[in-house]
Amino acid sequence: SERESEIVLLTADHTKIYWGRGVEFQNATELAPERKIEHLEAVMAQAGRLSDKEYVDIRFANPVYRKRSFYLGGV
Q1: Side-chain half-sphere CA neighbours of 39 within 13 A
Q2: pTM for the whole thing?
């Protein structure tokens, strides 16, 4: 599906980062990789660590995340 993220990164704490499409994908709505990194940094600055997040979606102009409803343990 074109609405689904083609690339999903998985952290050591099992947080999914919805990246979007590869760099070869040409679409007006697909953000440049640099913007996606900026979005990830903004989420971390605002919401702290990623280990307590179920997912972070950095594909669009306004990144979103969902906190876990359970604790996995660890740091």
Answers
A1: 20
A2: 0.81
